[in-house]
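Methods — Computational structure assignment.
A single polypeptide chain was analysed. Its primary sequence is given first, followed by the predicted tertiary structure written as structure tokens.
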Amino acid sequence: MHYLFLIAGFNAIFFALLLFQKKMARHDKILFCWLIYLGFYTGFYGLFSHKLFTAYHLLSASFVSLLMLNGPFLYLYISSLIQHSFRLNTGRLLHFLPFLLFNLYLLIASFFPGISEGIRLDHVEHASKPPFLFNLFLTLTVLSGPVYFLSSIQLFKKLDINIFNNFSSDTNVNLNWLRKLVYSFGIVWTMLMVTTTIHHIFHLFSLAFCTDGISLSLSLFVILIGYFGLKQKEIFPQEVIEEKNTYVTADKNKGKYAGIPMTEEELNDCAEKISHFVETEKAYLNPDLSLPQLAETLDVPSHHLSRVINDQFGVNFFNFINRYRIEEVKAKIGNPEFQNLSILGIAYDSGFNSKSAFNRVFKKMEGMTPSEYRKQIPK
């Protein structure tokens, strides 16, 4: 099994070097540091785990403290992807403070034999009682993973809101690969941490079983995060508008946009300008159309465009554009000229770039599937 850890460590370093050779965006820099850490962690475990936890008690405790880094790295990586204004400032670096405090405590304890003798992860007879602070830091290590996984889920909800308000399609920006990885790894990681806690308190299972399970899951995570992360592009390279709610009505937006100087007449004029352009130029046929792109074409500030769409049309940008696409699909389904095309072909011809997205949007807006809609049309 130790060879698996070495292979995972090699893969992590290899993926990090591949990242280093390309022009790295903000999220790439965080992923680079994360992969370097994961590579050395899994590699070191593969080489020395057989004697690390029995011969070097303080060092093994410090090694375990490294597990507190996964949560912050995950949280910062997702944040850098979904937040246009992301900056790695002092406030965000505080996520690593518990790890630093844990190791500072271990360093100080090393000068006091009475304390350091109780700092050990293996259970032996006549061992000193573990110090309170040591147990506290172990508890924080256990809780770190689940807390950051839940925080990451909240970030995904924020991403969904930004997608609905800035993109007409979520095919290339929904981070589904990272969602699935976070959900599955979060469940496995939490179960392993619970098992480790049971071992530490009740002396059930073996230490090797717990540490091997944690390192093995990290090894698999290394390979997946490196492979998919290497191909991940920046989602919000342009200006984005972050909304508090996915479905926003005009009444809810009155207070939110109070500081933007637009009169009622300007709102109506801008709404007519948007409708006229989208309908005559059929801008919705562009499957990658985004709010910043449309704002630039119309020479309207993005925040003004967002306000008009929400206020005057009562929908977000995603639903605004996809309503035009659905109407285009319905018109073509009922047009004999397009009878030679399949429903999916018509969908692609109408601005959709994903079968699953088309079916989901159509059923949501029409209350039936595209096939059911076609069957009810008189021949």
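Note: The mean pLDDT is 87.
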